[in-house]
Structure formats: C-alpha cells, structure tokens
Amino acid sequence: MFIGRERELASLERLYTSDKFEFAVIYGRRRVGKTALISRFIGDKRAIYFMGVESSARQNLENLSRNIMEFGTGIQADTAFASFQAALEYVFWLAQKERLVLAIDEYPYVARASKSLASTLQLLIDRYKDGSKLMLILCGSSMSYMEDHVLAYKAPLYGRRTAQMKILPFGFGDVCRYFRHFSGEDKALAYGMVGGTPQYLLQMDQRLSIEENMKNTFLNATSSLFEEPENLLKQEVREPALYNAIITAIATGASRMAEISTKVGEDTSVCATYMKNLTALGLIRRETPYGEKASRKSVYAIDDNMFRFWYRFVPQLSSVIGRGASDLAYQRIEPYLSDYMGKVFEEICRQYLWELLLKGESPVEFRELGRWWGTDPSTRSQTEIDIMGEQDKDTALFAECKWTNEKVDAGILETLDRRSRIFHYGKAHLYLFAKKGFTKGCEEAAHRMGNVALVGYEDLLEKIMEDR
C-alpha cells in the first residue's frame, strides 16, 4: 500500500514533463521510503534503475552495465562498459530522442568506490545537457555525504541539479491513513511508538492491540526493531558509542548541554559536535523559547518518535526482554505511557494547527509554532506554554495539550489565559486540546470568553484526516 508523498511525486512529474534535461537529488534517512518513491514515479516510464552496493567500483560498474544493457536490448548481458564514463555516455546517447529516466539509488556507495564519478557526471552533464532528454536522479541515505559531496558549494555537481528533495518521515495524518483499522487512540499510540518512518509502520499489525504490537516489536529480542536504533547509528556514524550515550542522556531527562555532557562524561565542546551531527540526521532537535533566537535557555529533545520511545524504555529493560519476559517488560512500561504520550500529543496538535493554517481556517496567520518557557512576572515562578505562534505584534495564539483520561476543566483554561497575558498581545486566541474532552464548566467558560477553541482528540483526528 503506497500512501503520501503526493507533493514529491507531483514535483518529479513536473520535471519529467519538461522534456529537457533534469537532475533531481533525493536524500533522507534510511527506511524513510526514498526507494519506494522512486519506484512509484518510474513505474510507468522508460527508466533505468540502478542501486549501488557497498562494494568495489568494478562491481558497481558491472551492475550498472547490466541494468543499462537490459534496458537497451531487453535481455540480460554480462558485458560491462569499460568505464563509468562510457556507461553514462551511452545513457545520454539513448536519451537524445526520447524521454528517459536514470535513477541511481544509494549513490554514495558508488561514488565512494569510484572517486572520479562526480567529476565524470559533471563533465557529461555540461557536455550533453542542452540537447538531452535525460532525467537523472541521484538518491542517497547518507545525509552527510549527499549534503557535503552533492549539494554543497564545493561539490563537483554543485549548480547542476534542477531540484532537490529531503524526504522526511510521514506526519500524523499520513500515518493515520496507513493505520485505518486502529482505533483513534491506538493511532496516536502507534505514532508515538514508531513515528512516521514507513519501514517501521510496516512492523505494526493492525489486527492486534497496541500492547501486543509492542510486545512483538520493541519487547521481542528477535524483532528488527529491538536493535534498530543502535544498528542505524552504526551505519550513519563512526563512533556510535558516544552518540548512543548522548541520545540516552536526552531520553532519560537531560536536556541542557551541561547536563548532557555531565551524563556522558565529555566536555561540552565535544558533545556539541556530536549533537550537531545528530541534529543533521533528524534524530534530535534544539529548542529555544518561542521568540528567542539565541538563548542560554536552549534545550535538546529527541526528534524521532521511534528513537524517543526506544531510548526511553528499551535499554533499561534489555535483560528482561532478552529472557523473553515481554509481559513483565510491558507491565513496567505501561504506567508511564500516558506521560510519554504528552509530548507526542503536543506534536500532533501542532500538526493540526498547521493543517488549519494551510486550509485557510486558522484565526491566526502564524509564521511558525513553538514552545515557550520562562518566568511568569506575576507569580515570579517558572512556567511553560505548550504551543504558541505569532501573527504580528498584536495577534497570537496559545495552546495547552492534555493527554489524560480525565476531562479538562475550567482551571486549565484559566491558567492558559493567565499565561497568555505575559506577552501583552491585543488579540490572543486560545486553544485547549484534550484526549477525553472537556467539563461543562470548561465549555461554559470558553463560551463566555469568546476567544477559545476547545478541540477534543476525536475532532482533531477527523480534521487532520480530511482530504486524505
């Protein structure tokens, strides 16, 4: 079942219909669905698809040659071109009179083995692009390699691409499209466990409960997800042990740079470099209070739900899981699930607010959304706002998100209203999001105030699934 990626497919189709030379760069983390996207795009087109392997230049050249010859003759042949230049020059020749797609998947494997490949591509593009109908796609999972050796200013191929796409995990709406047979609450729990990475979504069985799915995946020593984060780090970075320690520190409560460096036993300068790489991989993010560009109050959080769930629960239970005691492991996790889902629900609510904005249904035309924390001058105590977004100096929205089994009462709304007044906007629009709805008192208070939207989870789910 293929879901999502409508914008990416539409962009590729626009390039394809130009009928002139096009060069698209597609990159993103492993398991995120890049190959599925390319396969979907070229499914009804004249195309040569080649996946690089982590082997020698000769092996990759033989594989590429085989794919080209099979496309050109319709039969398998063992004959190899003398060089990558000869092979690619032949493809450019084939594309003189007809639209042709050449997709090189896992390009970094090929380019690392053949150091001159990028320069060869540069030469051939410059030589043939004006009279060519070739659409070239280079795709890679090594984020750093694609950014440094394909997209960067000093890279040989810089300035040749006509499009680039960074493929990200699915948002909650597309995840819900996939999990059609889960209940509304289970959709959120599943998203909290595996995030929006397609390969991880496939590990979930919608015929089973969330509890059974958790036991079959994260709490099962033979499951691919049991060791997935550590295996992924080994593929992406050179020193996985320190990266692993940093993510573990963040997952277990350390959020500031000083706290993280203390937990892992390294200087902050060392940690900063590693955390920059983890941020580039999309595994952690740096947050500053909304509206503050540079702040000593900056904190770090895990930016991928599967990593966040795994590091929060699995390592500390690895011995129990290794002994096959998945029931016991689940019993130790279950009391903390609601608290864990709090941050997940905040992200879901942010996506809902963006959905409103893009559909022209938001009362506030914000430019960005974020979290704010700091000192409340009226109480002189530390406080926090889950979500806020500014339209201009006079108008903003503020939101509180509650993933609890109790209905939200008027006290929560009063607190949000008081916190919104810290900023002195002329027009403040308040949103309360709740898993189980609102008390009658809260509904009456919202009606009196007139600037409040109460959004229950089921209503949120319905809105975020519209047009999908």
CATH arch. level architecture of the largest domain:
Orthogonal Bundle
For this structure, what is the CATH class of the largest domain?
A: Mainly Alpha
* Biggest sheet record: 5 strands, parallel
User: Which structural class is indicated by helix and strand composition?
Assistant: alpha/beta
CA-CA gap between termini: 14 Å
Shape: globular
> Mean pLDDT, as a whole number?
93
Helix segment tally: 22
Q: What share of residues is helical?
A: 40-55%
Poorly predicted parts:
none
User: Strands of the biggest beta sheet: in what spatial order?
Assistant: 2-3-4-1-5
Strand content: 15-25%
What is the radius of gyration computed over CA atoms, rounded to a whole number of angstroms? 25 Å
| Overall number of strands | 12
CATH fold title of the largest domain: Arc Repressor Mutant, subunit A
Supply the number of structural domains. 3
Tag the structure with descriptive keywords.
single chain, 468 residues, alpha/beta, Rossmann fold, Arc Repressor Mutant, subunit A, Trna Endonuclease, Chain: A, domain 1, 5-stranded parallel β-sheet, 22 helices, 16% strand
Verbal overview:
The chain is α/β, with parallel strands linked by helices and 468 residues long. It folds into three domains: 6-166, P-loop containing nucleotide triphosphate hydrolases (Rossmann fold), CATH 3.40.50; 172-341, Arc Repressor Mutant, subunit A (Orthogonal Bundle), CATH 1.10.10; 348-464, 3-Layer(aba) Sandwich (Trna Endonuclease, Chain: A, domain 1). It has helices spanning 6-17, 34-42, 57-73, 84-94, 107-113, 117-128, 143-151, 172-178, 184-194, 198-201, 210-216, 228-236, 240-251, 257-264, 268-280, 305-313, 318-322, 326-333, 337-358, 410-420, 440-449, 457-464, and strands spanning 22-27, 47-51, 100-105, 134-140, 163-166, 284-287, 299-302, 370-376, 381-390, 395-402, 427-434, 452-456. The strands form three sheets. The protein has a five-stranded parallel β-sheet with strand order 2-3-4-1-5, sandwiched between helices. A five-stranded mixed β-sheet has the order 8-9-10-11-12, sandwiched between helices. Strands 6-7 form a two-stranded antiparallel ribbon. A hairpin with a 4-residue loop joins strand 8 and strand 9. It is globular, with a radius of gyration of 25 Å. The mean pLDDT is 93.
